Amino acid sequence: MAAAAAFAQPAVVKPSPGDDLKSLYANSQDIAEGKRVAQECVRCHNDNGISSTAGVPHLAGQRAPYLHMQLRAYKRGDRAHSPVTGAVKFMSDDALMKVAAYYASLDPPKAAASPARGAGSRNDPVQSGKQVAQACSGCHGDNGVSGMAGTPSLVALDPKYFVAAMAAYKNGQRKNELMKPIAAGLSDIDTNAVALYYALLKPAKSPNPVKGGDAAAGKAAATSCAGCHGDNGNSTSPDAPSLAGQDAEYLAAATKAYKDGSRSEEAMKGIAGALDDKAMKDLAAYYAAQAPAQLAVKKPLGLAEWVDRCDRCHGVNGNSTDPAIPALASQRGDWLEAALNAYRKGDRKSAAMSAMSSQLSEADVKEIAAYYARQNARAVTYVLVPR
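The structure corresponding to this sequence follows.
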C-alpha cells in the first residue's frame, strides 16, 4: 500500500493479470530507496516533489502507478522530453517503480490562490460576453441591434468575422478613432466572448429609417454580392458578414470606405469601385429590408460543465481515485495548460483525451487549468483486493 500523510477516501483496486500496480505494494524500504534514486529528479522537481519552475509539474502526492507508467513511457521513447529521458534512460523498471512510490508518498502541494473573478471568467462564456458587451450597448443597442443611424448592428455576425473585424480596428486596418482604443482594450478572451454573445442573440432588423435608396434597384444589383454574402444577405461564410437587416446608412458608408480605400479588402475594392453613390444607397436599402437569419452557432460548455466531464475520470475536483489516472488537483496551472494543448495538437497521444481536448478553446484550456490548480489535493489510500 502506498504510504500517504492523509487520504481523501479509500479506493478498492482489483488487479488483473498484466496490471502493473507494483508501486501500490511498495513498502517503507522501497520508498527510501526511491528517494535515493530520485536525486536525479530534484533539479527540476525539488526535494519535496513540488515544482517551483514554470512548465514543470508537481510530482508529490501523484498516483504512483500513473507516475510509473509515465516514467516507463519516457524510457521507451513514447514520450519525449530530454531531461526526463536522460534521467531515466539507465534506470531499471524496479528503480522507476520505487521513484514513483516515493513521490506518491509525499504530501501533495497546496492549492493555488483563487484570483479575483473578472469579466473574462469562463464560468459561463455567454454571460461573460454579455457583461463585457454592456460597454457597447450605448452605440450598438442592448440587444445588439443598433438604434443609432450609421452604427452597425452586431447580431447575426459570425463570431469569426466579429473577431477579425475587431483585430482590424486594433491594428489600424479599419480606420475608426472611437473603435481603435475599444478594440485595443479587450483581451482575446473577452473579444471572443462578446462575439459569441452577439452571435447567439435573436436577430432583428435595424429600426433606423432608410434615407434614400431604391430597394428594388438594389435587389437587382445584389446578385453579384450573393456569392459571398448569401441569398438575401444572410452569409454562410465566416469571412463575409451577413448584411440582412443591417443599418442602411452604415452599409452605404462601409461600401464607400472600401471604394476610397479607408477600408482595406481586395475582394471588396473592385466591386465597390464600380458603384456610384446611388447604387450604394440602393444596395443598402435592399439589404436593410431583408430579415436576418439566426446563426447556427452552438453555445459552448461553461467551466462547470467541463469540470463535470473531467471529474468523471480524474475524480471529484481532480482528486483521482483510479491509480492509473493522474490527479489534477493543486497541479501547476501552466503545466496543465501545456498538457491540454499537447493533447489538442496531438503531441501527446490518448484517444479519450484527444477527443475531449479537441473541443476546447484556448480560453477553456486556461480556465480548466486554473480551476484544478485551485483545488485542494488529497492523497488516496488504495486497498488491494485479490480476485
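The CA atoms of residues 161 and 238 lie 5 Å apart.
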